[in-house]
Amino acid sequence: MNLRARLHRHGGLDGVRLADRTASHAVAELVKAPADREMAQRLAGRSILLATEGQMAAAKAMLVLDGLARRMLLLPPGIAPEQLPAIVRDAEIDLLVTDRDGPLRETLPDLPCITVQAASGAAPAAAPLATEWVLATSGTSGAPKLVLHTLEGLVGGINTAATPEPGTVWSTFYDIRRYGGLQVFLRAMLGPASLLLSEAGEPVSDYLRRVAAAPVTHLLGTPSHWRMALMSSAIGALSPRYVRLSGEIADQAILDALRAAFPRARIAHAYASTEGGVGFTVEDGREGFPAGLIGSRAGIEIAIRGGTLHIRSQRTARRYLGSEAGPLMDPDGFVDSGDRVALRGDRCHFLGRSSGMINVGGVKVQPEEVETVINRHPSVSMARVKPRPNPILGAVVEAEILLHDGQEAVADPAALKAAIIAHCRAHLDRHKVPVSLSFVTDLPLTPGGKLLRTPS
After folding, report:
1. What stretch(es) of the chain map to CATH 3.30.300.30?
2. 150 burial class (0-12, 13-18, 19+ CB within 10 angstroms)?
3. Which fold is adopted by the domain 3-340?
4. Which residues pair with 363 in a beta bridge?
């Protein structure tokens, strides 16, 4: 059953709204069947690249295209124009649906095009297709992979039988054209509940003020999103009932900071990825996850193989697209997340990405492990650890640090750096301790909200 049909079947859309910075729409009006049958015929069975300036246009188009299109690729922000021809080729795209001009159209001059406004008026398909949803990975470096999902898999982790609490309003720092944001969009629409969309490039404080004014009750983002939010004076106006982190390691420092900021909220950190789908959610206030989650439960199986987390379920993606793409699953049907995990007593702890380790004289260092230690220091808001070339060891560890109160408030920067180094020495092996620290005014995030990594 396609997305629009699910909404019609569910009903209960009175008062449910989809809003962004400039407009608010009744969802009941958005899912009313448009009447343009000629447009429906033009879209039927096509493999569509959906490229919009904003999230609202994408949301409206998704409601229409699911069930009409054979395949729908959601183009997220941050994709370089030079990457588009390969994306179109690998996804076998034969139609562009967009509201954009300029570099996009110039890069794809031979691809047939329909405007988002025209496409959004298409009538429903008489015999709906099982549209394939294609998402780009939101990794911290390199070209994105194209990951094929089904709607059934995307909504597999959503409890559509539960009735939302009165007044529920969802929002997320994520863009709904990426996996994390799409999950929130689908969760809100199928709730059903209202959804407030963020906006690319919007200052964090401005977004938080909109969140407070809505008022949003359920707010989601990466740990990096939340660290940035906690540095804003606008955070004090929020009173969410539910706060969730995903997409990066949720260390104890950020969990404790969110508990202090929102003492009455449910605070959860979830494990999910574009390839592996939704794995699990933890709400006990502790970093890592209970070892009891390893094994089979409720249609999902989690295993640790070769030190990385593996997932097998109907929620995972089906495959990668592209003639040169490798297999997404192993022969047993497991997706290797690439996230390294260590079992310590009754708790599993995330160490970081297997592809992101720093080689210090032949010894591997996980940047995230060092960042977790630095983030525990009371003066630190967030840190980024990266390699620095060294003629003897190949590389050494260095760190950039964003302070809670800003570097201009530090009376003695040298003394604070020495204190942070001493803190690291007390908790890390010698080769993992940064050889240098620098205080910075900003740490860049990827368009997916993750700390931007530099190649190791």
Report:
1. 357-439
2. middle
3. Rossmann fold (3.40.50)
4. 360
